Known about the structure:
single chain, 622 residues, alpha/beta, Rossmann fold, 3 domains, eight-stranded parallel β-sheet, four-stranded parallel β-sheet, 24 helices, 12% strand
Amino acid sequence: MLSEQILAKNLDSLKRRNSELAQRLASAAPRENCEILPTRSGHVTARIAAANGNTITLHSAYDPAREAKTFVDSRIVGERETHLLMGFGLGYIAEEMLARLGKRHRLIIVEADISLLRTALSMRDLSGLLSSEKIILWAGDDLARMSAFMTGFFDKSYIEDLTVIKHPPSLLLNGAFYTDAEIEVRNAANKRVVDLHTALALGPKCQGNILLNSIQYLTHPGIGAMLNAFSGKPAIVVAAGPSLDKNVHLLAEAQGKTVIVCVGTVLRKLLAAGVRPNVVVTIDPDEKNCKYFEGLGPVDDIVLAADPESCPGIFGDYPGPKLVIGVDTPETRWLDTFAPMKSVLPKGRSVGHTAFYLARYTGADPIILAGLDLCFPGGRAHAEGCNLSWGDELDVRTEPGLVLVEGIDGRMHPARKNFLNFLTIFENEFAQTRARVIDATEGGARKRGAEVMTLRKALDMFCAAPVDAAPLLRAARETPTADLATFAAEVEAACRNIDSVIETCAQAEKIVKRLKNEIEKTGANSPTVKKLTNRLNDCHQELFRFPHLVPIIQRNMLETRLYMERRDVALIPDMPFGKERLLKEAERGKVFFDGTLQSAASLKPAFAQLRDRVRQSAASKK
C-alpha cells in the first residue's frame, strides 16, 4: 500500500517550504515493523511494534478521520495563535487541526521517527497540508538539531502563547523524546522573547551606525559588480574556527588561483601567515571588532565588503578599497534616493553566513570552506589570535547551556545553541546553492550538503588555474554618482522635522488622555468624543508629512510593534462599535504615540551627529 507516486507528490509540496527535510525524507527508509491496515471507513491505519515488544495502533481501526475530529473537539484548537502537535502519526490529527486554524495561526508539528513520517507520506496524499504556510514541520530524533530548527522559526515570529497537543500513540513510541522536545520548543519560544528585548538595545546601535556610515554608503560602490563575476571559478570562505590552525599555511598557495573571502576576525591571522585575501567581510556593529582591523599595514589589494550597520570605526577608517553590502532598512531606502541603489544580500546571522552569501553571489563554484567549525573541538572557540573580542577561551566544563553536535570525525563536540542555529541556516543554504560546497575545515561540525575534504585535496583538485581578481579591485575603486548637496539639505530638514514629530506625538498624548475621559463620561457617540477622535486622526496624518523620517523612527519601536501584534489588539477592528472598542482604540493610539515619541527622542542625537559629520565633510572639500 506504499506508493512512490504519492510520496513524490508529497515531497514536491514539502520541498517548496523545507527543502532540507524533503531531502532527508527522500533518502530515509520506510518504517520497519509497520503493518498497514485498512479500516471500515476506507481510510488506513498502521500497527507498529514498539521497542518493548508491544504493538501500538496509530489510529482507529474503524474511522481514523472521525477519531481525529473527536480528539481535536476535546482540545482548544483554533483559539490560540500557535499550536504544537507532538507526533504526526499518519497525519489525520494534523489535517483536522489545520482545518480549524485562523489566518494568524500556526501549527508546529514534531515527529520523532523520520522513517514513520516517510511511510505516512507514502500512504496518504498530504500535499495540501505540507504546502500550507501555517504548518511548521520537524522530523527526526536529534534533539539538538530540532532545537536549532525551532530557534530559527521563532527568530522570525512572535509567539504570545503556545498550546500543546499530544498524539497518545506517538508518546507510547517515543515518550522520552517528546517530553524533552516540548521543553526545547518552549525554550526556543522564550528565547525569542529575550532576543527581542536584546534587540531593543542593539537596534538603536545598528540604526545609529547606518546614519554615521551614510557618507561611506553614498560614496562607495555596492557589490553589484560582483554578481557572477567569478562564475565557475573556485572561492574559499575563511572563518576563524580553531581548525584553521591546521591548514592556514596552505592558503598562500591558493592566492591568484581562487577568490579568497575571509571574515574580519581572521584577517590579521591570514596576513601574518602570508595570505592576502581578496575580500574581507564585516557586519558586526560593535566597536570591539575594530581590534581585528588595527595595524594592518597596506591593504590596497584587499577589498572590504561592509554592511552599513557595521561599526563606523571599521567602515570609515579602513584604508583600502571598499564595497557596500546592501541591507533593506528604512535608513538605506532613504539613502538610496541620493545615490545608486546597493545590491542586497541576505542578512547573515553571523559574518560567516555573509561571507558565504557573498561567495555564492559571485557565481563561484566550488565554494570551499575553511575554519568553519561551528563548535568547540578541544574546547577552543577560535583559531590562535582570533579571540580578541571574546577574551579568554571558554571553559567547556563550566560554560552554561552547551550542547553536543556531531563532528566530521564522528565524535560529539560541545557547541553553543546559537551555533546550532547557524549550522541549520548553513545546511538550508547549502541545499539551495547550485555550486558544489566543499567543507575543508578539517574539523568541527558535520554539515549536511557539504562534501568533506582536506584543504590540501581541495586545492589540488580545484585551485590550479589562474583566477584574475583585478575586476573586483576596479569595481571597488569606482566612485558612484551621489547627490551629496541634496542629501545635506535633507539631513538638515530631518533634524528640524524630528522636532515636529516629537511635538505632534506630545500633543496626541494629551488628546488621548482627554478622549479616554470623555468616552468614560459621555459614551461612544458624544460630539466631544467624535471631535477628539478627529483631532487624533489629524495627528496620525501629520506624521505622514515625513515619508522617509517616520519609518526610520518606527524601526526601533519594537515594544510597540509587539503590542500591536497581540491577538487582543489585532482583533480590535472586529469588535462592535461602542464604548469598549473606543477605549481599546484610544489605548492603542496612546501606545503608538508614546512609542513614536520615545523613538524619535532617542534618534534625535544620531541625526544631529550625522548633520555635524555632513557639515564637516562639506567644509573639508572647500
